[in-house]
Amino acid sequence: AGEAKGTTFEADPRATPDNHEWRTSGDGNLMARSASPDEATALFDEQFYLSRYPGVADAVKKGLFASGFQHYELFGEHERRVTSKETHDARRDLMLGFCSLGKNCEFGIAQRVFGAEPMDLLRWAFTPSDVLIRLLQVGFERIGDPNEMDVYPTPAGEYHIRHKGYQFAWHAWVNVGETTPEQIKDREVKRLPFLARKLMDDLAQGTRIFVVTQPDMTPDGAMEILTAMHAYGRPTLMYATQGGPPRVVRESDYLFHATIPKFADEAAVPATLPSVDWLAVCEHAQAVRESGAG
To answer: How far apart are the first and last CA of the chain?
Structure first.
């Protein structure tokens, strides 16, 4: 296990996400071999591609592209578009293997882009590191206490909920006028304890990779979170910072460091989400785990 510490895993930029195999380069990095044109063609499902991307289908009908595959060769491959149901399902299953521990909803939206909708306590939460550590240390005690919850409208017209005791907030995914704050609170009183138990079970099982996105996270700060997590079992933490290409480095057993060129704008996450980079990071993280260490 110790020999793999510090190993970096990257993807060959020529490789498509739909058809690659990992290889080790001369400097010890694990790279992805790009697919040949014949291999890519064999994996491409024209009907699936056009049905999934109506805009492309419309462009083909108008004669702007000879086929969906031509669009994929010119644009879709770079955009890492899904080329078949098998590819869609594989990406969804990959993203389900990760669990967001909050900070904001960026990683949760990245999971949604690739068809993954896990029920995770902190997926849509705004949780600073100190709040996350405290929650872990106390076993999410009184997480569902209705007296500690404040439901409030945002300027955008959506309800958020704040836990006054732990000082963190999360999306209600309900717009003002669709229901009442009291009904939202009643829902959360039941939902939060259930999801907290699920999270603690996931931590104990250690099969998923847990994700924290913090632009200024340090290795010491990540280790504090990991130490709190290890009160439940031996799960793996991946902390992501911005700057540099999508890549994953194993810093120690159970601790991965991922880099993203740039996080989404917190004021417009869906519109600025670097979903391609998140997919690459998750693929690389899985390769790190499957390399045999940690």
So the answer is: 6
What is residue 206's three-state secondary structure? coil
Q: Which two tokens stand for residue 152?
A: 């409030």
Q: What burial class does residue 173 get, using C-beta atoms within 10 Å of its C-beta: 0-12 exposed, 13-18 middle, 19+ buried?
A: exposed
CA 267 to mean position of chain CA atoms: 18
Q: How does DSSP classify residue 179?
A: B
Provide the strand spans (E) within 63-138.
Answer: 98-100, 125-126
In three-state secondary structure terms, 152 is strand
Q: Each residue of 29-84: pLDDT tens digit?
A: 333 333 444 444 567 889 989 998 999 999 999 999 999 999 988 888 877 787 88
CA 101/CA 123 separation, integer angstroms: 6
Please choose, from the candidates 270, 272, 239, 234, the residue with its C-alpha nearest in 3D space to the C-alpha of residue 254. Answer: 234
CB 11 within 8 A of CB 283: yes
Structure-token match 């510090």, residue found: 6
Q: Is 56 helix (H, G, I), strand (E, B) or coil?
A: helix
State whether residue 103 is helix, strand or coil: coil
Contacts 24+ apart (CB under 8 A), 89-95: 89/115, 91/17, 91/115, 91/116, 91/279, 92/116, 94/279, 94/282, 94/283, 94/286, 95/279, 95/282
Amino acid at 182: E
Q: Is the pLDDT of residue 102 over 90?
A: no
Q: What CA–CA distance (Å, rounded) separates 273 from 264?
A: 5
Which of 254, 252, 242 lies closest to 278 in space, CA to CA? Answer: 242
pTM: 0.77
